[in-house]
Amino acid sequence: MNTFQFASDRISINQLQVAYREVEALHRVSCAVQAGRLTGIIGPNGAGKSTLLKAMLGLVPIQQGTVLYQDQPLWEQLDRVAYVPQRSQIDWRYPATVWDVVMMGRVPKTGWFQRFSTRSRRIASQALERVGMNRYRDRPIGQLSGGQQQRVFLARALVQEAEIFCFDEPFVGIDQKTQDIIFEIFHELTEQGKIVLVVNHDLGESIHHFDDVILLNREAIATGNRQQVMTKANLDYAYGGHVAFYSEAA
To answer: Hey, what CATH class is 10-239 in?
Structure first.
């Protein structure tokens, strides 16, 4: 059994194992997620990509293994994490405006039932402006397009002033403009030294945005630098046969 020792500016995942009703979802996954690099979790449907992200955050129970950040369990430090789930998991009928949704991201800094400070409101306005949604601030969230909704939740993540940003399939059902905005902000966050981890199902051109990749199919097939991981042999093994993907050399 290999034991990984990583620097404190990384998330270290060691021998992580998860099962649902005795069906193994993740088998002894070990890898690292480095600060300052955009990391994608890639793999076929049912590979455990979302499960890995949720297990890291303590949202699903694990059978064994550890997930450490600065030598402490990550799920004990969720105040340092901004997490955006899949859009399909959100109830868009909830009666909240764009502004309400973004300000929810300031609650951990402000406290429940406390008045938001001038600084919090300024941060929220700046985040909405950054994602191009400030003029929709009074619009009910359920009346927005999929891309607009995703941008609002990105703004909510930004106002949390987190160290770690986790996104579960943020590019599903969105337009090209929104995808471009999201990647721009992801790169800004990594330049600031943040940890940015993204579950991504697409093997198209968007792959070239990622610095590092965790290639998963219930176990870690390969992890590390994108060019080293995204080889034909690794992808064929992960996907169980020939798979077409975007190649920068093509």
So the answer is: alpha beta
Contact partners, residue 70, CB within 8 Å, separation at least 6: 8, 9, 77
Going by the DSSP 8-state scheme, the letter that residue 97 receives in this structure is: B
For the chain, how many helices (H) and strands (E)? 8, 10
Selected residue with higher pLDDT from 210 and 112: 210
Q: What's the predicted TM-score (pTM) here? A: 0.90
Plot region of 134 (φ>0 → left; ψ -120 to 50 → alpha; else → beta): alpha
Distance CA 189, CA 197 (A): 11
Mode of pairing for the β-strands spanning 64-69 and 81-84: unpaired
143: pLDDT confidence band, cut at 50, 70 and 90?
very high
Separation between Cα atoms, residue 225 and residue 82, nearest integer Å:
24
Return the pLDDT at 77. Answer: 95
- pLDDT band at residue 97 using 50, 70 and 90 as cut-offs: very high
Identity of the residue numbered 167: F
User: For residues 165 and 167, what is the distance between their CA atoms, to the nearest angstrom?
Assistant: 7
Q: Residue 229 half-sphere exposure, CB side, CA atoms within 13 Å?
A: 24
Amino acid at 19: A
Structure tokens, 122 = 């300024």
